Amino acid sequence: MFDAVFIDADNTLFDFDRTEEKALLDTAHKFSVDFNEQNLSEYKAINKTCWELHDNGKLANADLNLRRWSLWLERIHPTAGISAIELANYYADSLSRQCEKEEGAEKLMQYLIAKAPVHIITNGFPSSQLHRWRLAGWESLLQGITVSAVVGVQKPDAEIFHIAMKEVGISDASRCLMIGDNITADVQGPQAVGMKGCWYQRNGAENKTNIQPDFTVTHLNEIEKIF
After folding, report:
1. What DSSP character marks residue 146?
2. Whose CA, among 35, 88, 133, 227, lies 20 to 30 Å from 46?
3. Last residue of some domain: 96, 115, 145?
4. What residue numbers bound the domain in which 147 lies?
5. 209 phi/psi in degrees, rounded to 5
6. Nearest to 128 by CA among 88, 91, 96
7. pLDDT tens for the 227 residues of the chain, in order
8. In whole angstroms, what is the distance from residue 106 CA to residue 116 CA?
9. What is the DSSP letter of 128?
10. Do 192 and 88 fall into the same domain?
11. Number of C-alpha atoms within 13 angstroms, CB side, residue 168?
């Protein structure tokens, strides 16, 4: 049915929630930071705001990591003497060293690569990408990775999908499928260029938009039924 498959990374193939938790604990231990419930809640609120700014084109990917940690330190530990730059850099490195696969991801990858070229399109941090794919054992299986911060445009902008298609050598968007958990970035974006969009309705997420996915799955193993 499809000549190429494009897939999101975080919270699609990788369980970013568990990855983040491990990296936060590692960072807290390294810098002797107390990640109690209140501090963690503050971090998540700041992080959410920063990502919203990023998704709206108001905060560059390269600036996001330092911004969130700087704001968090100002709010939680303004006199702690901790370097926001060192904290941000360590956390980013720790993220790259974590490899928590989403349930069903390994089986799905093995299935897909036997069917069509598989290419990743992600808005995640460039520093955490390649190492993670090596840890997962998927690097040699992929037909490339398109990272928004590297190519200068992010999902759901049409250009990032055209760039990824060119990397795979595919010109007919109607013969391509994009899979991901973000209904705007991973469904509306690819649909706008003629791809089919498969929404991974992770953890019972609600569709609060008027976007209509071509396919909807609640578990990665359901994707096999599409082919």
Report:
1. E
2. 133
3. 96
4. 4-15+101-226
5. -115, 180
6. 96
7. 899 999 999 999 999 999 999 999 999 999 988 888 888 899 999 999 998 998 888 998 889 999 999 999 988 866 567 899 999 999 999 988 889 999 999 999 999 999 999 999 998 887 777 788 889 999 899 999 999 989 999 999 999 999 999 999 999 999 999 999 999 999 999 999 999 999 999 999 999 999 999 999 999 999 999 98
8. 16
9. G
10. no
11. 29
Which CATH number do you get for residue 11? 3.40.50.1000
Q: Which two tokens stand for residue 161?
A: 């999908």
Q: Specify the 3-state DSSP secondary structure of 61.
A: helix
Mark whether 91 and 138 lie in a shared domain.
Answer: no
Q: For tokens 């990855």, what's the residue?
A: 19
pTM: 0.90
How far from 58 is each of 76, 127, 146, CA to CA, in Å? 24, 21, 21
Tokens representing residue 119 in the block = 């290419």
What distance in Å separates the CA atoms of residue 157 and residue 222, rounded to the nearest whole number? 27
Q: Write down the residue that tokens 């530990």 correspond to.
A: 77
Cα–Cα distance measured from residue 32 to residue 30, given in angstroms and rounded to the nearest whole number? 6
Residue carrying structure tokens 């330092």? 66
